[in-house]
Amino acid sequence: MSFSNEWEESYTKGKHHSIWPWSDLVSFVYKYCDCVTQRRGRVLELGCGAGANIPLFLHLAADYYAVEGSSSIVEELRGRYSQLVDRIAVADFTKFQPHGGDFDVVVDRASLTHNHTDGIRGALGVAWRALKPGGLFLGVDWFSMNHTEFAKGEQDVDSYTRCGFSVGQFSQVGRVHFSNESHIRELFSDWELLLLEETQVHRIEPGDAHVFASWKLVARKP
Q1: Other C-beta atoms lying within 10 Å of the C-beta of residue 198
Q2: Using an 8 Å Cβ cutoff, are 19 and 56 in contact?
Q3: Is residue 8 left, alpha or beta, with left meaning phi > 0 and alpha meaning psi from -120 to 50?
Q4: Could you point out which of 165, 192, 194, 199 has its C-alpha 20 to 30 Å from the C-alpha of 183?
Q5: Counts for the chain of helices (H) and strands (E), in that order
Q6: Model-level pTM?
Q7: Burial of 69 (0-12, 13-18, 19+ CB in 10 A)
Q8: Do 103 and 130 contact (CB within 8 A), yes or no?
Q9: How confident is the model over 150-177, as a mean pLDDT?
Q10: Are 147 and 170 contacting, i.e. CB atoms less than 8 angstroms apart?
């Protein structure tokens, strides 16, 4: 299983419990997903984590499903959202998802990017099979190789994947995948890329020259 035990430990300790929908994802949904905002479309989230995006899709009355690797956080979410008890599954989304197909949208906010390259390829295959023709994949915060932390981790199973972060943003979260433009284009070679943007945030104070860099993308299944 590709899911990192570090994330399970983090969730059980009350860390990474984001509760507000991610603004970039909200913008993407309203800009690209009329099928969701106007027609209550079918949505699959890969790696829902602590459920930060769930209130957005419940507000839109979407037909929402999720897959998450952490059994403890899924148990917590099922207690919080009784209407989703049968819709949030514990599974390795790099290999399969149990909710069937015919989805309008698959969303990911910084979950796939915590896998190695083969795991990401597997997850994109899962997304492809879940989507109907013309369906959309929304990806937010895929970490960039321009991120300061890329040079600080130890190389894992491939040149894009790092691990062993002892301090900083990625401390104790296991694998972190970093991409450049050509790598993302290769990963999405079978898709139609509607949007690909890199965000870089340069820290001024304190003066440590830290750069947060990540990709966001929208891809359509032909």
Answers
A1: 17
A2: no
A3: alpha
A4: 165
A5: 7, 10
A6: 0.93
A7: buried
A8: yes
A9: 91
A10: no
* For range 193-201, the mean pLDDT: 98
Pick from 86, 198, 77, 184: nearest CA to 137: 184
Query: Looking at residue 108, what DSSP letter applies?
Result: E
Tally the C-alpha atoms within 13 A of residue 5's C-alpha that lie toward its C-beta: 0
Residues in the chain: 222
Q: To which residue do tokens 């860390």 refer?
A: 15
CA angle 135, 178, 140 (to 5 degrees): 35
Which amino acid is present at 94?
T
pLDDT by residue (tens digit) across 32-91? 999 999 999 999 999 999 999 999 999 999 999 999 999 999 999 999 999 999 999 999
Q: Which helix (H) or strand (E) holds 109?
A: strand 103-109
Token pair 């197909």: residue: 101
Following DSSP, what letter does each residue of 2-39 receive, concatenated?
-S-HHHHHHHHTT-S---S--HHHHHHHHHH-HHHHTT
